[in-house]
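Check these lines:
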Amino acid sequence: MASEEKGTIYRIVDWIDSRFGFSRTILRPAPRYSLSPTYWLGAIAFVVFLLQGVTGILMMQYYVPSPDKAYESTMQIVSSVSYGLFIETVHLYGAYAMIFLAFLHLVRGYFVGVYKRPRELMWIVGMVMGLAALAMGFTGYLLPWTVISKSAVDVSIGLINNLPDPIRGMIVYIIAGTGSDEELLIRFFSFHVVVLPVIIILCFAIKLHMFEVHGASEPLSEEADKREVKWFPDVLVYLLMLSFVFLSVLFAISAIFPVEFPPKFSPEVAAQYAPQPEWYFLWMYQILKIPIFEGKTGVQAALALIMLIALVVTFLPFIDRSEKRNPMERPFATTIGVIAVVEIVILTIWGALTPGKGVSLVDAIIILGLPILIVGLISRAVYLRYQHVKALRMPKKFAWEFVEASTSSNLLLFFAMSFFIAVGSCSISMITMSTNLFSAIMNTISLITSIIMSVWILYSAEPRNVLRR
């Protein structure tokens, strides 16, 4: 039974390959150790970026980039367009997911030292992509023209006005033009749908070329399986499998927690709300609320600090010249990285819990200083302990141990199961938002079919023996 199914799968693969020529592309085979989700965080982020393009194009059919009609056209999508609320929610949560995945990709790259020779320029290109993703979130935040988004953008432009000339004038003119609401919105819209996506796509093409030249970063463990697997079908199917599973979770969350829009912006309504940026900028906003950064000079100092951090991270390959990549052998760099991540998380949560409220200097010293002390002590203890062992051994996760040992047929089967999971998740989403009986019936049938197919695939072929071992 298994051999017949395997033969059928390979015949399908060969038929597709003979027509499309996937196996004869410039994409090189990948080592087996790279078949791990942590190696594909950036790729999944780009898949979400493509999803953003699809949902964005759908919304552009109805959206009007005008201060008078932006909010009304957004509400029309939500209330009048079929599954409009679902599309809007997927687009918003997709932006969150893209930025969060890019952040995880950055953190993972920092701790395992992927920025070291010969991948210095890959790191810089990746940083440009990450900053462009943040800029897409910032520009897209304004487009619905809600009281929260418009007020937050006004505050951001006010902070930029504290920069010295000519930097201040140049930045303000680029993003806001002459200062009218009409020009501000149209410029944000243009950056969001044209300029920034083009930058991300170009950077992705450059980074993909460099990736094909240098290959996947070397593993930290000498015991890693370095045997190569073909790009098609193994690597491609693995990426699609991860993408479908991630998108199914995204669709389910979008259906369960649909977005709720604040009121339309007006000066009268804005006076009743505390301006607050999106969560991925909250840590910077919270820094600006610390008393030592009050006043024009303090704001300039805070902005200079944030820009300095961005420059240091961007050009880190030329600052950290050590050839060591194992985080346990780089105690100083690892400690700094852990402190940075912990402080960003703390500042973000702190900012979310104190919207529109100032902070005292004593609170800032305690809340930000105590984690530095704790992380420093723990890092020192861990490093001393590491000196007594010969090698760092990272236990494998069972689920991915199977994937790393998979054959092409197993990967294809799990890809099919992931696809049906995504279909089922999307069906749940559509059922909750169906406006007529026919749509609800068809989506319910799709859900039942996806469940049956997923269970059948899981228990009818080779993966069954692996999962039950």
Summary: The mean pLDDT is 83.
